[in-house]
Amino acid sequence: MASALVAAGLTVAAARPSGCYVLQAMKHREPPVKQVFQSPPKPASSGGYYRDGLNPKDKMRSSINAGISPAASKGTI
Fold first, then answer.
1. Among 12, 14, 63, 75, which residue's Cβ finds the most Cβ atoms within 10 Å?
2. Where is this region: Disordered (predicted)?
């Protein structure tokens, strides 16, 4: 019985420093981890979309389908 108590005490005594080390390591890693989770994810690319919404070929096709000149300005439409 006494040897079991001694073994348990030694286990707790050995676990304490390693636990303190883990807690210290977590404190040092906390700010970068919080920063990663707070910043919104940025897309790797623009997603393949054009700034105006359509690429030039699709713009021309849609204007022909609508019966409008491809060179027509927004004011004309």
1. 63
2. 32-77
pTM exceeds 0.70 for this model: no
Instruction: Please give the tally of structural domains in the chain.
Output: 1
Residue 65 has pLDDT above 80, yes or no: yes
Q: Which domain holds residue 1?
A: 1-38
Q: At CA 27, angle to CA 43 and CA 17, rounded to 5?
A: 140
d(CA 6, CA 9): 5
Q: Alpha carbon 53 to chain centroid distance? A: 25
CA gap 29, 23 in Å, rounded: 10
